[in-house]
Design a protein that fits this description.
Helix content: 10-25%
Shape: globular
Number of domains: 1
Number of helices: 4
CATH topology: Pnp Oxidase, Chain A
Oligomer: single chain
CATH superfamily: Electron Transport, Fmn-binding Protein, Chain A
Length: 224
């Protein structure tokens, strides 16, 4: 499920587009060499906290207000691959600099290289969603990575996509996620993709917004 801008509003309002609406190349291809696209400002390579400068935090804040088309970061095959995936792995940076990994549910924006993943109602160690480790990691350091992969016993179908980006916590202060209509579109897309969310209180939970800056992929992305 993805969120797509409404052309009548020049990309201001969003409309939900079902997965079947996405143009997909259903042909099979042999495993290929990695495909890599990079923005003009790739993420900082070091995972040490000493490199977390105010400019990195400022870039994360600007990402929300700076619309970028997905083709500036993702190829069409990469976009279709992440769009079709049912789950991904989110990596945040722990206080000691180590990566912290967690599987996530998500939806992607139809035009911008943006992913939304909720802090949902599945059982967690912390009752307060703002105390969850991934939220605390992002508040301290907004640099994150996403891994989407396909495993198959037919190794001509193997593929993965890794995206680095900057994350923000929407609703961090307990308020709604931006405009009420925006939250309704995000939660509606999540429930359309994952029917289990019908019983979750997504309207009152924080949502992680990730804008991709850099993507690397390998394998048969279009072997659906």
């Amino acid at each position: 499920m993805e969120i797509d801008p409404d052309p009548r509003d020049d990309g201001v309002a969003d409309a939900i587009v079902p997965p079947s609406a996405a143009p997909l190349d259903l042909g099979r291809v042999a495993i290929s060499s990695p495909i890599e696209t990079t923005t003009t400002t790739p993420p900082i390579a070091s995972h040490r906290r000493v490199d977390m400068t105010p400019s990195v935090r400022a870039a994360a804040a600007r990402a929300v207000a700076r619309p970028v088309h997905h083709r500036d970061v993702l190829t069409e095959l990469q976009r279709d691959f992440v769009h079709a995936a049912r789950h991904a792995v989110l990596a945040t940076i722990a206080p000691d600099g180590r990566p912290r990994l967690v599987p996530i549910c998500f939806v992607v924006h139809g035009i911008q290289p943006v992913l939304y993943t909720p802090i949902d109602d599945k059982p967690k160690r912390e009752a307060n969603p703002l105390a969850i480790t991934r939220v605390q990691d992002i508040v301290a350091d907004p640099r994150v990575s996403i891994l989407v992969d396909r495993w198959d016993e037919d190794w001509t179908r193997l593929a993965w996509l890794r995206c680095h980006g900057l994350a923000t916590i929407l609703g961090l202060d307990g308020s709604d996620v931006g405009d009420v209509a925006d939250r309704a579109l995000i939660t509606g897309a999540l429930r359309a993709k994952y029917p289990q969310y019908e019983m979750h209180r997504l309207e009152t939970r924080p949502i992680i917004r990730i804008e991709f800056e850099h993507a690397t992929s390998w394998g048969a992305l279009d072997a659906f």
